[in-house]
Amino acid sequence: MQFVNFEKGCAPEGLTIAEVDAPVLTDDKVLVQVHAFGVNRADTLQRQGHYPPPPGESEILGLEVAGEIIEVGATVSEWKVGDKVFGLVAGGGYAQQVAVNPLHLMPIPENMPYSSAAGLAEVFLTAFQCLRLISNVKPAERVLIHGGASGVGLAATQLCHYWGVESAVTASSQEKLAHCQQNGANLLINYKDKNFAEEIKTNWPEGVNMVLDMVGGDYLNRNLQILKRDGIVVYLAMLAGRYADNLDMALMLGKRARIQGTTLRNRTDEYKSALISDFSTTCLPAFTTGELSVNIDTVYAINDVAKSHARLESNNTQGKIVVEW
Question: What is this structure's pTM?
Answer without folding.
Answer: 0.95
